[in-house]
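Give me the fold.
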Amino acid sequence: MMSEFTYIKLERGEGIAKILFNRPEKLNALNPEMQNEIGEALKIADSDPEIRVIIMSGIGRAFIAGADISIMAGQNSFQYREYAKWYHEIRQQMLGSSKPIIGAVNGYAFGGGAVVAFSTDLIVAAQGAKFGQQEINVGHIKGASYLPRIVGRFRAAQIVMLGEAITAQEAYAMGLVNWVVPDEELMDKAVEIAGKLMKKSPKALMMAKQVLNIQNETSESAADYYELEVNSLCFGTPEQVESMKAFVEKRPPRF
């Protein structure tokens, strides 16, 4: 099933929603319409009971090459704030999604594209992919708020302060991505991982995502307690009972 958008494609089938950025002539640079469409597609995928996993990727030579500079040029502080608050909103929407989100990163993931990529739960990068928070090169910053939680302060400082492009292999070495694959195998690998996730309890995956994300917002002890609470909520549910029964019977679970 395909939903109609202008700057993205939303394809749904076999438990997977693919959100494909589709402004290839601009290297999928973000404009306000595309930003709104990404948020709307996420809402559709998140509310669809048939969808178990979301995959995000780009069409053409880029994942998202960043913001459309022609829109940002000449903005004052207030105008930029109104434009840029989308990055906070989309990050929170992605982190708050009840479904696992896989980033299948092809080509460039710069600026706002890096924000989107690093807001997914798992990242498969094509060998030719490049990442970067290069805003420092045009007089502002992005990434300083969330990158230290992913790679630590010093790696984050390197990314944010130098504003250099990072290859897929470098990103893997930093712990920014989970897998690096040949370019032509990117989507196949993402779908393979989605298939593995679909064999897990949807409720347990949702709870795991919540606990992983709360690590960024609270102390370790509070996060440990929160994990205890949500893990307790998993037990006794039909999904948990079936998962344990299937494990004992040495068969795949049936959700």
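The mean pLDDT is 90.
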